[in-house]
Automatic annotation (TrEMBL):
Pfam families: MFS_1. It is found in: Cell membrane. Signal peptide: none annotated. The keyword Transmembrane helix applies. SUPFAM superfamilies: MFS general substrate transporter. Keywords: Cell membrane, Membrane, Transmembrane, Transmembrane helix. This is Predicted arabinose efflux permease, MFS family. GO terms for molecular function: transmembrane transporter activity. It comes from Microlunatus sagamiharensis. The chain crosses the membrane at residues 20-44, 51-71, 83-105, 112-133, 171-193, 228-250, 262-281, 293-311, 317-340, 352-379, 385-404.
Amino acid sequence: MSTVPGVTAAQPEGRGFGLLWLGEGVSVLGSATAGVLLPLVAVVSFGAGPVWMGLLSAAAWIPWLAVGLPAGAWVDRLPARSVMIAADLAAALLVVSVPLAWWAGVLTLPHLLAVALLSGTCAVFFRTAYMAILPQVVPGAALETANARLFGTESAAQVAGPGLAGLLARVVAPAAGLLVDAVSYLVSAVCLWRVRPRPRPALPPAEPLRTQIGVGLRLVLRDPYLRWLSGLGGVSNLGLTGYQALLVLYLVRDLRVPPPQVGLLLALGAAGGVLGAVLGAPASRRWGSGRASTGFMVLSGPPALLLPLAAPGAGTALVVAGLFLVGTGVVAGNVVRAAWRQRYVPPAVMGRVLVTMAVVNYGTMPLGALLAGGLAAVAGTRTTVAVMASVHLLATLGVLVSPLGRSRALPDPVVEPGPQPEPSGSIAGSARRGV
């Protein structure tokens, strides 16, 4: 096939992107390590069952429902870099409290739950500002390549993090190993402090918070592409988070994997995300952003059903294969869609629109984790993993009946004012009409 006409691989350059890339890479490595260590602390130190696993996973995502929409409005009014630095420093203090409490002999499950909840709140502000700052650091033509590098680094961290977690669990202890995550937040804050983003366009006078939130909601609801992306992403994440919340428990109790080897298996599965980050941008240039996004989303669904088919011993290879293939499709599609959103959404409402989509996408995650924990307590872990994998599969097939599935390329923003043709309900038209 020929490449999409006029599409070239522009490269993100400059010290600002390099620092942003470095800080994010170190931070996600720490978070990927903590993502394995925290549930291991709960299982190994406290004998936590599926309900607690669901609660711990849900706590990290509940803040998107509680403060996600206000965070978008605030980030549109505050320097994104300052918001990210403050979130990093607060998260470092929260995480370091776990090994300190463990050394003092006062660590409890509610303490772990509180750290997950408050760290999740920090993540809401960090991720919202992060989505908004990238177009201030990288030219629009280079956003796809920049996102590919960032997603690739994140996926590589998802490979290295679980392996590092397994090593730390063997050499020190899961709780003590969380110091790695605390240090990673500090490194990220230092890198961000040295980034100098381009100034944003002048903003109109501040409106009431409710009005600002309403702008983001209306833009997403009126735009068919953003609306479908949000809805399908929310359903998919409900299923993904549901079975991911039980993975450590499933591996340790059902498949009888020794705790130090859990990290290795999860790392092998996460390697698919690295491949996805490499494939996303070239596929978008070759086949068009619409076809690439749809294809990757559809391909990420069926492999999830391999997870509940696994058995102890060699059968755990099915878990690795399922995670690898799902990760490839999910990350590749994310690369394509993230770059498109950052080009498509007007800068003045970037934070509000992106966080509205994030609230829908991430807001279903605590529900998925809680549903999975409750269902596993009644029906068993394996059955619950199968149910949640099926939910993800249904969402990936839903894209075929959406506007995304009928588009070779996702629409471009309208860059010049005036009576230009645009898709019905498009964000560019809504923004120009004042919503």
